[in-house]
Amino acid sequence: MKNELSTNIRAFRKERGLTQEQIAEVFGVTVGAVHKWEAGLSTPDLSLILEMADFFDTSLDVLIGFEARDNRISVLAERLRKMSYSMDPDCIAEAEKALKKYPHNFSIVFECALAYAVYGYNPGNDKHLRRAMELFKQSVTLISQNTDPDINEAVIYGQIAILHQTMGEVDKALDIYKKHNAGGMFDIKIGQILAMKGDYEQADEYLSHLLIKQFGDRINVVAGKILCYMGRKEYDEAKAVIEAAINDNAAYRNGDKPNVLDKYDCMFYTLLSSMELKLGHKKKAVECLKKAKMSAEKFDAAPDYDAKNIRFVNIKDSLVLHDTLGKTGIDAIEYALTFMKDPELERIWRSLK
Fold this sequence. Notes:
Layout: H1 5-15, H2 20-27, H3 31-39, H4 46-55, H5 60-64, H6 73-85, H7 91-101, H8 106-121, H9 126-141, H10 153-166, H11 170-179, H12 187-196, H13 200-231, H14 235-251, H15 260-278, H16 282-301, H17 329-340, H18 343-352
């Protein structure tokens, strides 16, 4: 907490056009004492501070520069997070003060753990990292108080694992990641550690499953982004995000053999055709829809849903990829047409079909 008394004494004195000598005379002290007050080298007695507040026609709070802070738990937790994000030098002191006030509150303990972690990562302060780990473990015992949907026990253990990694305790980190890998949330961490340890086969298995998951996620991300861009009439951006998805598919092809990526292309080219229409490029729209039809015919002639046939996916057993686009490539096109609800696009499709 900052003490603004010295600054405020000087400011109030100058506001009234008084010299240090005159202030010294008013309060019965030496000029040297006033100089020390204003320089912050000494502090007046409490009785003198009360007299000053009365003399300067102000409140004691204003003279001292005291500002009562909102120390409700939610506000305090948010303040700690902002201080750690901005690397405020007072953050650790504030964290310890908060822990003394609320030693058994989940939000406070968790935010203090994050603060110690932030200050421990850079430049590698083991003392802070150990304190962060201690607080994260304590927060697990208080998890029943948590109301933040973005935080659960697995998230906290993930933070503990990161601390072990940072301190070079890789095996401990790996063990924690594996034990708390709900839904594959730590696949990338596990894969990276295994690769660094030279266990390439097992690492590739984890990383490959992560790639497989991303194919499905990408369809949903692209669809959501299109809706956002269309809602703002940013058709060029919508077109760009679809083209990026198509280029990504091309990178994951394993030769010319048809696979599930062709089915995804059916949808992407149909969506791209719609964007070309929105931009007034009817000829390009027709060409895109033709490409969608070609991809559909290629896939439907020899449907292949096995993730093993996608480039960079190295898994031991076959894994069938499921989607909601329909059974065939043609179904995927018509799914996209339903999604876009574009009468002109549907007319072009009927003429090609």
